[in-house]
Specification:
single chain, 328 residues, mainly alpha, hpI Integrase, Chain A, 2 domains, 3-stranded mixed beta sheet, 3-stranded antiparallel beta sheet, 14 helices
């Protein structure tokens, strides 16, 4: 197999916009073949590079949040991204809501970390600059009965399988879309999930979801490899690793979100995840069980599902009473 190498160029010759484009391109790459990347005198495989990118960037880097910075300094070299520039950039966004400000701060931090990893930046331009305090909100959970009633109206095999799978396993949409056919263990009714931050876990799906997945794959001719969820039309210029033998590309997040809006224009796709986790908490899942089920990295992140969950508190009180722990 022929190996190519990507050699880091002179830092002074790399515009910020070019650096961002390359960061996003590598993050979205799905080809796991070893691809040497020569950076700072060391060689890193593409698999490692992608893992680093995902850990640093914690998901897909949205260039829209960096658009104001790129408009101001996009044609300047990466080395021009100094503490003064970053400070001025964030100061210009102080008027925004805390949530929007923090999202732009996170995008800038991710980009800066990526540039440091590539050897394009030596100093962290965000030292001493912090996120703004942001009040924690309750979960955006929906009524499970209403959600399931809406899901039952979906008859297209791919969409039905995808959205029931997300709901059944409380998956992030991107986690569902990165599943390959050979990640599914039919005997155990489980799927190997490539979670946020490149952290793997197993998801055990229900018989209902098993039936929907089976029907969808039969409609596709029962493929043995490749992406699980693909587009309805053949791709024009796809990445090879996201291409089936028949020429169909992996379904993207934007496409999945558009499909979901057709069925539920008033609901956010991520609310399926919130609804399922909140429902499991109400049914007596422990903190540790919820952490494993949802793929969260800390118990603290589950507070939002438990603190405002009246049904969970009620369930625990009744369970305590059934065990004979009553007031004297």
């Amino acid at each position: 197999m022929e190996l190519r190498a990507v050699v880091v160029r002179d830092v002074e010759a790399i515009p910020c916009e070019t650096a961002l484009t390359e960061a996003v391109a590598l993050l979205r790459a799905r080809d796991h073949r070893p691809l040497p990347v020569c950076a700072g005198g060391r060689v890193v495989g593409l698999r490692d590079g992608r893992a680093v990118a995902e850990r640093l960037m914690a998901g897909d880097l949205d260039t829209q949040d960096l658009a104001p910075l790129l408009a101001h300094a996009g044609d300047q070299p990466v080395s021009a991204l100094t503490h003064a520039v970053a400070s001025a950039y964030l100061a210009a966004h102080e008027h925004l809501a805390a949530r929007t400000f923090n999202r732009r701060y996170a995008a800038l931090r991710s980009f800066a970390r990526w540039c440091k990893t590539q050897g394009w930046l030596h100093d962290d331009p965000l030292i001493g600059l912090e996120r703004r305090p942001q009040p924690r909100r309750g979960p955006r959970a929906l009524d499970p009965e209403q959600v399931e009633a809406r899901l039952r109206t979906i008859h297209e095999a791919r969409d039905r399988a995808l959205f029931w799978l997300i709901y059944d396993g409380a998956l992030r949409c991107r986690e569902a879309l990165t599943i390959d056919v050979d990640d599914v263990n039919w005997a155990e009714q489980c799927i190997r999930i490539h979670g946020k931050g490149d952290r793997p876990r197993e998801m055990f799906f229900s018989r209902r979801v098993s039936g929907y997945l089976d029907a969808y794959l039969k409609e596709r001719g029962e493929p043995a490899h490749g992406p699980l969820f693909v587009t309805a039309w053949r791709a024009r210029n796809p990445r090879q690793a996201d291409l089936t033998a028949e020429g169909y590309a992996r379904l993207s997040y934007r496409q999945a979100d558009t499909l979901w809006k057709r069925y539920t224009p008033d609901w956010d796709l991520h609310q399926l995840r919130h609804t399922t986790i909140t429902a499991r908490a109400a049914k007596g899942y422990t903190d540790v069980e919820l952490k494993r089920f949802s793929g969260h990295t800390s118990l603290r992140s589950l507070d939002v599902y438990i603190a405002h969950n009246r049904e969970a508190a009620k369930h625990k009180a009744r369970e305590w009473e059934r065990r004979g722990h009553t007031d004297p």
